[in-house]
Write a structure and sequence with these properties.
about 325 residues; Rossmann fold; Dna Ligase, domain 1; seven-stranded mixed β-sheet; cell shape
Length: about 325
C-alpha cells in the first residue's frame, strides 16, 4: 500500500510565492508509484487541500487530517517545502512532533535557531577554518546604534532581516547616509536585523543532506551575479545569475569546504536537506559563512536540483531518499 504524504506549502511571509513554486516542482518529481501526494496549503487561519476541481477541503488541526469524499485521510509523513514561517522556523515541526507525524526537515530547536542568522553565526564560528564577517545584531533602529555601526564596522555593509529569507528586505550600504533607509527596510520585514561587513570573495551555495545512514555534501554551486549581490531577482529570475555547478574550486578548497559544511550540518543537528551559503575570500581563500537554509528552494531555477544531478542522481530518487529517511528517524 502506498504511503500518504502531505506536501506542505504556502506560509505566513512574502516567501509563500516561492514556496508554491517549489511545491509544484516537488509534486511533479515525487515518485507517485510509491506515494499518494496531497498538497496542503497553510495560510494564517486557513489550512486546506485543494482538489483537482478547485474545491478547498479544510484541514482538521486536531490530528492534521482531511475529509475527502466521505473518507478521513490521515498522513504517514510530511514533505515540508514551506519557506519562512511557520515551515522553516520550527512552528510546524513542533506541531507535527506533538501529533507524532514524521517530516522531512529539521526538528523545532534546530529550525528556530537556524532561522536566526545572528544566533546561528554564534554557534558555528567555533568550527575550525570557518570565519564569519564582523557584524551587529540589532533589536532596535536607533541613532545611537547607527553611530556605533559606522564607528566600529567598515563600509560597505550588508543589511538583512535576521530571520528572513530569499533576500527580501536586504540592502547593500556603501555610504553612511544610506544606513538608516536600509535599516528601515530590513526592520519592516523583521524585529531583528543583522548588519555585516562586506566580504570580497567568490560566492557559493552548497547542499548537504542525510540519508541511508550517511551525510552527503553535494557539489557546490558558484554564484556569478550580474546584480550587486545575490538578491531576490538574482535568485529567482532566469538569466540574471550564472550558476556554475560544480563551482570552480581547487582540490584543497573542495576538501576544506566539504569538511566545514559537514561539521556545520552535524553541529546544528540538521535533518533532511539544507543549503549553506558561503564566500571564499579573494585574497586569502578563507571560508566565510553567510547563512544556512533548512528548507532550500526547489524551484526550476534552484540550486539543490543542479547539485543532485551533478552527482548522477535523479531528483526523484533524491526526494525518495529524503522521505524514506524521515521514517527511519521516526
Amino acid at each position: 500500500m502506498k504511503k500518504k504524504i502531505a506536501l506542505v506549502t504556502g506560509g505566513f511571509t512574502g516567501e509563500s510565492v516561492i514556496s508554491l513554486k517549489s511545491a509544484a516542482v516537488v509534486e511533479k518529481n515525487l515518485d507517485h508509484d510509491l506515494y499518494d501526494i496531497f498538497k496542503i496549503l497553510v495560510y494564517p487561519g486557513n489550512w486546506y487541500h485543494e482538489t483537482s476541481s478547485g474545491e478547498k477541503i479544510p484541514v482538521d488541526l486536531n490530528d492534521f487530517s482531511i475529509d475527502l469524499d466521505g473518507s478521513k485521510i490521515t498522513f504517514d509523513g510530511v514533505f515540508n517545502i514551506l519557506h519562512g514561517s511557520p515551515g522553516e522556523d520550527g512552528k510546524l515541526a513542533g506541531y507535527f512532533d506533538m501529533l507524532g507525524i514524521p517530516y522531512t526537515t529539521c526538528d523545532p530547536i534546530t529550525s528556530a535557531i537556524t532561522m536566526n542568522k545572528g544566533y546561528t553565526k554564534a554557534i558555528v564560528q567555533s568550527i575550525p577554518d570557518l570565519y564569519v564577517a564582523r557584524s551587529f545584531h540589532l533589536f532596535k533602529n536607533t541613532e545611537e546604534r547607527r553611530e556605533q555601526i559606522l564607528h566600529e564596522l567598515r563600509l560597505p555593509l550588508f543589511i538583512k532581516p535576521n530571520s528572513g529569507g530569499s533576500s527580501i528586505g536586504m540592502s547593500k550600504v556603501k555610504e553612511p547616509n544610506e544606513l538608516k533607509e536600509a535599516l528601515d527596510k530590513a526592520f519592516a520585514e523583521d524585529s531583528q536585523v543583522l548588519v555585516e561587513e562586506f566580504v570580497s570573495g567568490r560566492e557559493f551555495s552548497i547542499g548537504i543532506y542525510n540519508a541511508k545512514g550517511e551525510t552527503t555534501v553535494l557539489p557546490a554551486t558558484e554564484i556569478v551575479s550580474s546584480k550587486e549581490f545575490f538578491d531576490f531577482e538574482a535568485k529567482y529570475s532566469p538569466g540574471v545569475t550564472e550558476e556554475i555547478t560544480p563551482g570552480r574550486m581547487s582540490e584543497e578548497e573542495i576538501e576544506r569546504v566539504n569538511r566545514i559544511c559537514e561539521k556545520i550540518y552535524l553541529k546544528l543537528n540538521c535533518k533532511g536537506a539544507v543549503r549553506v551559503d558561503y564566500f571564499l575570500e579573494h585574497e586569502t581563500g578563507k571560508f566565510y559563512f553567510i547563512e544556512i537554509n533548512t528548507v532550500p528552494g526547489q524551484t526550476e531555477t534552484s540550486l539543490i536540483s543542479q547539485q543532485v544531478k551533478a552527482i548522477g542522481m535523479t531528483v526523484k530518487q533524491f526526494y525518495t531518499d529524503l522521505i524514506e529517511e524521515m521514517f527511519v528517524r521516526k
